């Protein structure tokens, strides 16, 4: 990681690359390398990595999270159990990032979701499910269009088509208003990209879809793991609840001020990532020979660090199987000060959506614990490897209304 060079390289997600090449699309931020990657990255990082820029999305993220809480109330059974909470959290992740990227609500939580919203949910889900088997199976799709590949493409094409329609709506709105003159300094991400001469209109759509794909499975599964941990660790849950109630006012909005004052959520999140790192490994193709543990690893090798193994290593963490958010509270604590948090990767190519993800996750969790006490008495849930690290079974938790 420390020897990653000016243009850090990660291995590519082959089905994604194949799909994009077959449609003549650019590879986007996730899969491009070298100068092409740098061009995308420099344009986006101005808008995505500065906390002040991300704060502008707080009201939308808060509203989407409140809608999720309301939706949970609708799908909750009389005994407070929710079957299929995974889908509701998935919709929350899609709606949150969609609202930021397209500057418009998708409508996943509308009483009767629009055709657009239903298609978005179905095709994004389908795209991820088919991607998983293509990614881990033999790449036959590169030789001939297998059935699975064709289904994947059908979902992929539809996701891009829907994304394009949302971008077009924004373009139309801008051309009607004086916002078209807005300088990229004051604008949100999409407006900034549309104003940038470096990107064609198609590249704007491809980049937004890239960001969406990076955002949904990661944030939704992180929220699921956090809820599961809270439901099974009542003391940690009460501590978070008390702090949320202290920092969130009567209006019930999770503002950026409230987020800044809430220290418990940070430690909770670090501890959840330690035990259940959704992106279970971080990797680089190294640009020069390196020495490691007495071995020479030649330039061009793919080197991968397993976040899952590191998080559960007793040499790095005391009693690693125990869920203990407090271990992250003391910055002088030896245990955590010697290890940087790698959940979002590292260096120049670290996750560009980190600030958005943190804001979404903290807001979503805060809104849920304000409203519900979480309980779980089902079988132990273990991690399993899909596109990201997900629960190995549906988590049927109880969402008991607080008042
Ligand atoms: C819990 C949530 C998330 C986690 C744990 C996560 C984790 C990661 C990791 C580990 C990487 C690789 C970094 C590296 O190679 O050093 C990455 C890259 C990336 N992530 Fe995330 N991510 C999350 C949310 C998001 C969100 C919300 C977005 C978009 C809004 C996003 C977009 C991306 C993109 C585009 C890349 C590729 C960046 C590049 O290659 O320059 N991620 N993410």
From TrEMBL:
Segments crossing the lipid bilayer: none
UniProt-recorded name of the protein: Cytochrome P450 10-like
Family that this chain belongs to: Belongs to the cytochrome P450 family.
Necessary cofactors: heme
Gene3D superfamilies per record: Cytochrome P450
Zinc-finger as UniProt keyword: no
UniProt keyword terms in alphabetical order: Heme, Iron, Metal-binding, Monooxygenase, Oxidoreductase
Keyword hit for Oxidoreductase: yes
């Amino acid at each position: 990681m420390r020897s990653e060079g000016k243009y850090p390289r990660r291995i590519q997600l082959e089905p994604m690359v194949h799909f994009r090449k077959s449609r003549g699309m650019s590879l986007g931020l996730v899969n491009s390398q070298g100068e092409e990657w740098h061009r995308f990255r420099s344009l986006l990082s101005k808008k995505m990595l500065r906390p002040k820029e991300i704060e502008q999305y707080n009201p939308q993220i808060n509203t989407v999270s409140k809608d999720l809480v309301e939706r949970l109330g609708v799908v909750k059974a009389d005994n407070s159990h929710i079957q299929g909470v995974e889908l509701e959290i998935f919709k929350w992740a899609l709606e949150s990032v969609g609202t930021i990227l397209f500057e418009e609500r998708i409508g996943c939580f509308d009483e009767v979701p629009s055709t657009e919203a239903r298609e978005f949910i179905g095709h994004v889900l389908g795209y991820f499910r088919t991607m998983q088997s293509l990614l881990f199976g033999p790449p036959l799709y590169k030789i001939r269009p297998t059935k699975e590949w064709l289904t994947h493409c059908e979902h992929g094409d539809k996701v891009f088509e829907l994304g394009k329609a949302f971008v077009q709506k924004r373009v139309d709105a801008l051309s009607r208003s004086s916002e078209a003159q807005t300088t990229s300094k004051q604008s949100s991400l999409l407006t900034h990209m549309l104003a940038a001469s470096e990107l064609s209109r198609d590249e704007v759509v491809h980049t937004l879809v890239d960001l969406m794909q990076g955002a949904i499975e990661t944030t939704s599964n992180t929220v699921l793991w956090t809820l599961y941990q809270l439901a099974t660790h009542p003391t940690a849950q009460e501590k978070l609840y008390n702090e949320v109630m202290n920092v969130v006012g009567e209006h019930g909005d999770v503002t950026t001020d409230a987020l800044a004052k809430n220290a418990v959520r940070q430690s909770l999140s670090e501890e959840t990532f330690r035990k259940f790192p959704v992106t279970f490994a971080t990797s680089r193709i190294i640009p020069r020979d390196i020495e490691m543990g007495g071995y020479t690893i030649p330039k061009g090798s793919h080197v991968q660090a397993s976040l899952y193994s590191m998080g559960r290593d007793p040499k790095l963490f005391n009693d690693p199987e125990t869920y203990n958010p407090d271990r992250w509270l003391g910055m002088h604590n030896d245990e955590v000060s010697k290890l940087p948090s790698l959940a979002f990767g590292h260096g120049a190519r670290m996750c560009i959506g980190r600030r958005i993800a943190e804001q979404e996750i903290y807001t979503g969790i805060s809104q849920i614990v304000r409203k519900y006490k979480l309980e779980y008495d089902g079988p132990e849930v273990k991690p399993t490897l899909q596109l990201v690290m997900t629960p190995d079974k549906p988590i049927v938790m109880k969402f008991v209304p607080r008042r």
